[in-house]
Amino acid sequence: MDLSDTDLPRRQILKTAVALGGSSALSACLDLGGSEPVPTGNLNAKPSRQHAWREYVRQDEHGNSQLPKHQILLYINFDADAQPSSDTRLTLERALTTLDRAYEWSHKGLLHSIAYSPSYFERFDQPLPENIDLPQPRALSPFESPTFDTQDAVIHLASDRANVVLEAEQTLQGKQDQANGVSVDGQLTDVATVDSRRTGFIGAGLPAQHQDAAGIPDSNPVPEASPLFMGFEVGFRGNQATEDYVTIQDGPFAGATTKVIANIRQRLEDWYDEQSSKDRIMEMFSPSHAENELVEGTGSNLGSDSGIDQFVDDIEADAREYSRVGHAQKAARANRDEAGNVKLLRRHFESTDDIESDQKVASLHFPSLQHQITDFEDVRQAMNGTDLTEATPAIRQRVNNGILEYIFVRRRGNFLVPPRRHRAAPTPKPES
Length: 432
What we know:
Layout: H1 10-20, H2 23-32, E1 58-59, E2 65-66, E3 70-78, H3 86-102, E4 111-116, H4 118-121, E5 147-148, E6 153-159, H5 162-172, E7 178-179, E8 182-183, E9 192-201, H6 206-209, H7 243-246, E10 257-266, H8 269-273, H9 277-284, H10 287-291, H11 315-322, H12 327-332, E11 345-346, E12 349-351, E13 363-370, H13 373-384, E14 407-417
Parallel strand pairs: 5-14
Antiparallel strand pairs: 1-2, 3-6, 3-9, 4-6, 7-8, 10-13, 10-14, 11-13, 12-13
Helix pairs in contact: 1-2, 1-5, 2-5
């Protein structure tokens, strides 16, 4: 795509620029960025938790968090094979502090984090504390065979401003002398190599603008109001874990959380061409959501809670009566603790990435935060609905079984998101 084509919609140019990356893409974003300055950072105003985003992003009228529109994931490997040196830690901390100084911690500036894989911690002889649940990634269903992301770490950049995530990326890679007017002090690429770059977007209008990707029918069915390709609202506050709940409270990593990031391919021809709106509501939420006409349009009428909890106990009866079950209905069975608290904090966003290919495909990057990786694994296995295939022959492993017929896990990685004080190449048991 020619980013100088002035006939293209502004938001399409911005999204495409983030996907392409590089100095020319940054220049295109700056040309379209408007006159409003990007707020600079205040080191004293940064939260101690890297995953503290909720208070710093937009909220809709129901109090649901609106994630930053433009996002980049940089999977990195440290250059040395041995344990990171003190010089490596200092260089990395300086690079991250440059971002802290350059941008306000908000959707108007930049939200960012760095998280570390089990493979990174295997560099050390000392094990992680017992309260840190960080296994290597594995297949979580009998019908998936994902590639596992075992790079040392992943850096997550997010902002409503496309030029900000691009400039931050260029800064980390040593291609900018300044970031938002702040002098660069330290470069990520002095100590690490970017192994994989992935991008995405979320918000009403963006998926509709990019539904020319493979996997979406030519009829352009994605609603303009939808923040995701599948046509429904996400991130209802009542169906998300709180940041406090997913935070590790004790030990040397107090203030940390665990993070799973999956990359999911979407094939939505049948979702839109063969399913009615009522069918899609049944399979996304529950049959009762469709029968009781609880969902209007993209589901914004649901407010701050999808209401899925009241239909969890009906799932086997729904399977027999309606010959299908809902995605949210299945997942919720394992996504509540004994007190009724939601376990996972999902921060997924759309993409047209086809990793290691230039093809545009409908895909989803699915970051999930939780107290321990096991929580995510339990919810993912409940989502499989393997037990429900025994309730009626109409439900098969991937047919009439939530949205499994339309999504395919291609990659998955597990990570620890340390508190800010330990974000730069931590040891397994860092000192206070």
